Recover the amino acids of this structure.
């Protein structure tokens, strides 16, 4: 289970650059895909009273998935599969990992952002949902109607640390990203589980 958690945390860091719209201007045209280092720090939000609001990514949300407080492990467990679920913030923070007691079963990593953290808001994030810094998910993004204020999911094969599925859901001015390691399930099942996670998050709004 620790290996899955570390993999999910690493995946989140590697995919953040793409989805927040950071990156160079396409490089020098040599086709190697490399770009100059950039500052991927999210747009600064107005100061808030720490006693009055959670760390919501600058979105004004009344929930916070990144510290595991919004969704208990007991709620997430049945979405992922059978077994006892745990919720843990990885070292360094940044999100919440939900994992079952059997490390071969699916695990998911949730992160929370404000829409202004992404180039072109939710539309920009959704347009790049299948692209990560370590390679693409070889799948077709699917728009999900009736979940939050907008949702998209993609599932498919990838190499190395690429997740088996990624989903985004918009709740007000908050975007939550779910990165799934499916444990080798078929793409349709990985998509179904990720969609279930997005539905659970949407219910927080």
């Amino acid at each position: 289970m620790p290996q899955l958690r570390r993999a999910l945390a690493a995946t989140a860091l590697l995919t953040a650059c793409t989805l927040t719209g950071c990156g160079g201007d396409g490089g020098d045209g040599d086709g190697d895909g490399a770009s100059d280092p950039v500052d991927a720090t999210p747009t600064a939000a107005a100061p808030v009273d720490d006693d009055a609001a959670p760390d919501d990514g600058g979105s004004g949300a009344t929930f916070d998935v990144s510290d595991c407080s919004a969704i208990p492990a007991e709620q997430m467990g049945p979405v992922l599969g059978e077994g006892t679920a745990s919720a843990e913030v990885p070292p360094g923070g940044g999100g919440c990992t939900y994992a079952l007691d059997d490390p071969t079963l699916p695990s998911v990593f949730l992160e929370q952002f404000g829409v202004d953290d992404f180039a072109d808001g939710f539309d920009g994030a959704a347009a790049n949902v299948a692209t990560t810094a370590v390679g693409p998910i070889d799948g077709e993004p699917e728009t999900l109607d009736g979940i939050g204020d907008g949702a998209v999911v993609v599932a498919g094969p990838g190499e190395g640390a690429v997740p088996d599925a990624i989903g985004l859901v918009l709740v007000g001015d908050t975007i939550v990203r779910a990165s799934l390691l499916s444990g080798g399930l078929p793409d349709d099942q990985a998509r179904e589980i990720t969609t279930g996670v997005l539905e659970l998050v949407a219910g927080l709004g």
Notes: The first strand starts at residue 85 and ends at 88.
